[in-house]
Amino acid sequence: MELSTDWREQRRRILEKAKRVIIKIGSAVLTTEKGLDPRVVNRLADQIAGLHDRGLEIVLVTSGAVAAGRCVLGADKAAGCMVHKQAASAVGQSRLMHSYDEAFAHYEKITAQVLLTKDDLRSRERFLNARNTMCRLLDWKVIPIVNENDTVAVQELKFGDNDALSSMVANLVGADVIINLTSADGVFDDNPLENPAARFVPIIENISELNLQSMCRGKTGAGTGGMLSKLMAARRAATIGVPTLIVSGRQKHVLERVFDLEDLGTWIAPTQKMLSGRKFWLAYHLDPAGTIVVDDGAARALTGKGKSLLAAGIAGVEGNFGMGALVRIVGLDGGAVGVGLTNFKAVELRKIQGLSSSEIEKILGPCPHQEVVHRDNMVLDSSL
């Protein structure tokens, strides 16, 4: 991997100027086989309080509720199906927050519990309400502690893991950087547990161009996510200009050392071509209701020329969706092209696919839109 010479300067500049920071801590750092580790909570609170005293606004995205519940209920009751884990989360979440409250109280810091589901951020109105609440808490010098609302979230409304949640929260509050604390020292070019020759990767500059699946075999420890989920979350954040530092949460004084500009962890740089907040919302907060298959010419026009999608380039339609729905756009080989909001219903598209604009009016009558998906309502990304 060829590295530019100025990435360390970029990192130094961003960390020096950072005002609003997301700190994500995973189960592998926060818990032991016996459950929540109070020593880790206390050390984390000590470091975050120190950063808070420097003037940083901190949002803590935390795992650990299920593990804390498992400690109380017994491993057999907290294992297995989703309902068991949700019940364990209900028991553990209050204990998790109590641990944080006690730890931060030593430094006279006020915390707030914020539980989110994907549905809270899917609705634009609820998204803006959540943003206003979070920003008001930060204005009041409160430290929001965010977790997924596992107890009520159904599978299709789950973020999947708190790595994904951290990138969504970064967009929600307009964060400057994400610090993802994990059990690994950072990113390696292979799984170091399986390959002793795996090399440490200090910088990822073009994460959108990497095959993340091939880099990430295996998990980093407890919890639902591994290094793949951390890199996928970092890729999302990079598209809105938010860099991520993946670093070991087990190192002493790691947060203080990071903001003292010590060279730790793997720095994932923001992408040069950034998404607007609205396009990020389209790409990552909404779920596709169907799929539009495009021919090779249309795929080239979309990705190479930035064109809107016309009916003439459509080769197939999958699903039953309405006008205004989010749809996946894929090529003839099934490879992802991107996502976008459709101006036509699925039943209409099946009638007009492959046709020119003049032919469409003969079938559907006058149409307010010539484009099936306008480029302003489209996000092109082969990972979507």
TrEMBL record:
Keyword Nucleotidyltransferase annotated: no
Q: What is its EC number?
A: 2.7.2.11
**SUPFAM superfamilies xref list:** Carbamate kinase-like (SSF53633), PUA domain-like (SSF88697)
Q: Where does ATP bind?
A: K24, T224, G225, G226, M227, L228, S229, K230
Q: What is this protein called?
A: Glutamate 5-kinase
Q: Which family does it belong to?
A: Belongs to the glutamate 5-kinase family.
Return any one Pfam family short name.
AA_kinase
Species the sequence originates in: Desulfomicrobium norvegicum (strain DSM 1741 / NCIMB 8310) (Desulfovibrio baculatus (strain Norway 4))
Q: Name one GO biological process term.
A: L-proline biosynthetic process
List positions binding substrate. S63, D150, N162
Domain spans labelled PUA: 290-374
List cellular component terms (GO): cytosol
Q: Where in the cell is it found?
A: Cytoplasm
Q: Which residues form the signal peptide?
A: none
Q: What class of enzyme is it?
A: transferase
Q: What does this protein do?
A: Catalyzes the transfer of a phosphate group to glutamate to form L-glutamate 5-phosphate.
CDD domains recorded: AAK_G5K_ProB, PUA_G5K
